[in-house]
Specification:
This protein is an alpha+beta fold and about 150 residues long. The chain is built from two helices and six strands, in the order βαβββββα. Strands 1, 2, 3, 4, 5 and 6 form a six-stranded antiparallel sheet that branches. The two termini are about 25 Å apart.
Length: about 150
């Protein structure tokens, strides 16, 4: 099996526009989930050089709202693997244009399966946690995945 191509996270920046907000002028949760899902797919592809589809999402934790005009910084990184699945930890933070300090608004695990051109699951390189932080995220992702079965 090939080795992973990249361990680097993917970081996306998005602005909250009026069409992304509800009557309270806060970002729709579904729009944020779409951003997070996109970043998870990108980092999985970057890691394995394969096409991926989402198979499950752990309970996302929406901590705070984001408002129209905020910048959303979403960071995704591979933290767990099985033979065909990548577990991605995704965190989104809101930032104002005046300060650019990230305040976490949502986090969770996205699980992506690698597929071939016929949409059949295929094997991926494996992630091996080394640091204490990587081991902790590995265990959290593994527990989340097992709870979904």
């Amino acid at each position: 099996m090939n080795r992973p191509h990249s361990f680097e996270p993917v970081v996306l920046l998005n602005e909250v526009f009026p069409g992304h907000t509800n009557a309270l002028n806060t970002l729709f949760g579904g729009h944020l989930m779409s951003i997070m899902d996109t970043s998870a797919g990108m980092v999985a592809s970057k890691f394995a050089h394969r096409e991926f589809v989402t198979i499950s999402v752990d309970a996302l934790k929406f901590r705070k709202p984001a408002f129209q005009g905020d910048i959303i910084r979403t960071t995704a990184k591979v933290v767990w693997t099985s033979p065909r699945t990548a577990g991605i930890h995704v965190t989104s933070c809101r930032m104002s244009r005046s300060e650019w300090q990230g305040e976490e608004i949502c986090s969770g695990f996205f699980f992506m399966v690698a597929i071939d051109e016929s949409m059949n699951a295929i094997e991926i390189p494996q992630f091996e946690p080394k640091t204490d932080e990587e081991k902790e995220l590995w265990n959290q992702a593994k527990s989340a995945r097992e709870a979904m079965k």
